[in-house]
Each structure stands twice: as C-alpha cells, then as structure tokens.
Amino acid sequence: MAGETDLSKLLKTMKPVHHTGDYVFCTITDLGTVPLEEIILFFKEEEGITIIITQQLADKLGFEYTAVFSWITLTVHSSLAAVGLTAAFSTALSAAGISCNVIAAYYHDHIFVGKNDTEKAMDVLNTFSA
C-alpha cells in the first residue's frame, strides 16, 4: 500500500500521537548488548551504532545519553517520496524554538523532541489540521 504524497492532505491528516515514556539516543558498538525487542530504532553509522531506547532501559544497562526526549508519531501514512512534509513541520517547530529529530519509517514519520517541549510541540503539530 503506497503512502500519501499530497502535502496539503498530509498536513491536514497527520494526527500526531504522543507515546508516553522517556526516550534517549545512545551509541553502542555491539547490538548484542541490548535485547532487539527493546530497541525503538537502530542505525549503523561509521562511528558506531545509534539506538533509541527508553531512558529506563538505558539506565538499567548503564548507557550514557545527553538528553531525554518525547516520541511523537504522525499517524498519517506518508509516502517515502512525499515532498515537503518534514520541511513544513520542522519549520513550524523551529519557529516555536523546538528542536526535533526526525525518523522517517515506511508508514509514518516519528519526531523526537526534548521532554520539556512535548506539550508545545503537540500544539504546534495540531495546528496543521485545525
């Protein structure tokens, strides 16, 4: 099933959902040190493997992290070929003084914002469908 590519439809129907919990970005050298079912995302980079996991798991495993994030998913099924969605919401978040880290998966876009910016970010994202 192909995702939506029309930017106006994407913005009006993106319906952001906040996942409860606290999330962190960590780097590791061996994926075997973390149960795969506990990893939200992993990406292999030249310098190491970046993982997103819960803060609770990172603390349990003794992993270092520099910030705590909230996870927001845009529930619209956006196409990987859609143009402008990331630019539109990241510009709006930036104008509100909110940094965002964006992960585009097959079905949805996922946004990680600083824990203290969660409510403000949800307000900004919800303005697109108002």
From TrEMBL:
Residues 2-69 form the DUF2241 domain. Pfam families: ACT_3, ACT_7. Residues 70-126 form the CASTOR ACT domain. It comes from the Bacteria. PANTHER family: BLR5128 PROTEIN. This is Aspartate kinase.
